[in-house]
Amino acid sequence: MLTFALAKGGLLKDSIKLLQSIGLDFSAFLDPGFRQLQITDPTGTAKALLVRNGDVSVYVQYGQAHLGIVGYDVLREQRPNVAQLVDLKYGGCRLSVAVKESSPYRSSLDLPMHGRVASKFVNCARDHFDSLDLPVDIVPLYGSVELGPITGMSEAIVDLVATGNTLRENGLIEIETLFYSTSRLIANPLSYRLNTDQIADYVAKIRDQVNATALV
Amino acid sequence: MLTFALAKGGLLKDSIKLLQSIGLDFSAFLDPGFRQLQITDPTGTAKALLVRNGDVSVYVQYGQAHLGIVGYDVLREQRPNVAQLVDLKYGGCRLSVAVKESSPYRSSLDLPMHGRVASKFVNCARDHFDSLDLPVDIVPLYGSVELGPITGMSEAIVDLVATGNTLRENGLIEIETLFYSTSRLIANPLSYRLNTDQIADYVAKIRDQVNATALV
């Protein structure tokens, strides 16, 4: 049976809406009282696993899910061995360098050599500063990255920005954008090549749906 | 000013109680409506940062906090450059190998060569299986690790067990314990050696308090 891996959190509502539009109903996951982590669509044609954002590509890469929906930001950071098939357009955000508004830094190159940059996107941050040939110390922080500059631990952060409210509330400003991100449909490369459980049909339906919505 | 890094979650209540017993009041962090991530004790002698469990040792290692309270499990996994000073005794749990109850495996060595083991404790899991000379594929999963065996992605998991309820609810059983864990008081090595802001006094008070409680 075709299995989807869906990310908990911000993308879930739109992902379920998208799958509903191609005839698959996993809306039980949106019920706050619902505790199961895997369900079968009422028509019995497909299954979905509800997993953490960072785990979607693991389930897809290891073949436990044929298809998955996850943010491009996660794919850039993890570089999993999965096929990236469709840009689903929702869940827009950007990965940016931010500093204290009161600091003198207005671009990445203004940062001091061997300064500190806090981020949970350690690979993306390292690539960015390597590409500028600016040696900085990347400090891995997995929650409340904005505490880095506030406590004085780091000169800058590299973090996801959607509305910018968290930055503003903490007196931080964006000085550079590494890349923009939206949600992506990914597939296990082997399942996709072998067209296991008619993956290709589902991918085509999702692609049509996304294109149709984009035209509205 | 002496700064503590405290972990959000299960350890917080006991950590705050312990610090209250040596005269430092950070109980505002327990108020669900409270949103600040750093506060100063009402007496003005110390500060506390409220951070994610996995970030405590980062703040301490980089010197932004002089002292921190974090689980031994995290220290074993991250191996940060911090001084481990006092076993605080609370927050007890163990890191264990678990499998499906219906599986034939009853010890780590029963697992098939090149089988899969899902864990967020990838370093601890790798060390354990390396020490047995059993080559397994460690699958990094950061949420709901129990889905590994349930979906058939992995033969086993390595995960923290406190009461064992999560395992039971998911039809899993523990077959081996890697180590037991409790919360630990850690310090920045340099601050500790230089006795910055009278760290040693605080450490002594905490040690006395823990010993006194243990005698009751």
Shape of chain A: elongated
CATH domain fold name of the largest domain in chain A: D-Maltodextrin-Binding Protein, domain 2
Oligomer: homodimer
What percent of residues of chain A adopt helix (DSSP H or I)? 25-40%
User: Architecture of the largest domain in chain A in CATH?
Assistant: 3-Layer(aba) Sandwich
GO cellular component, one term (chains A, B): cytoplasm
Protein name (chains A, B): ATP phosphoribosyltransferase
EC number (chains A, B): 2.4.2.17
Keywords (chains A, B): Amino-acid biosynthesis, ATP-binding, Cytoplasm, Glycosyltransferase, Histidine biosynthesis, Nucleotide-binding, Transferase
Could you walk me through the main structural features you see in this protein, from its secondary elements to its overall organization?
The structure is a homodimer of 216-residue chains. The first copy, chain A, has helices at residues 12-21, 56-61, 72-78, 122-131, 147-151, 165-169, 189-194, 199-215; strands at 2-7, 38-40, 46-51, 67-71, 83-87, 93-100, 116-119, 137-140, 156-161, 172-181, 183-187. The first copy, chain A, is α/β, with parallel strands linked by helices and 216 residues long. The first copy, chain A, folds into 2 domains: 2-90 and 182-215, D-Maltodextrin-Binding Protein, domain 2 (3-Layer(aba) Sandwich); 93-180, D-Maltodextrin-Binding Protein, domain 2, CATH 3.40.190. In chain A, strands 2-3-1-4-11-5 form a 6-stranded mixed β-sheet. In chain A, helix 4 (122-131) links the parallel strand 7 (116-119) and strand 8 (137-140). The radius of gyration of chain A is 19 Å and the shape is elongated. The mean pLDDT of chain A is 95. The A-B interface holds A 8, 37-38, 49, 51-52, 54-55, 58-59, 62, 64, 116, 139-144, 147, 150-153 and B 8, 37-38, 49, 51-52, 54-55, 58-59, 62, 64, 116, 139-144, 147, 150-153.
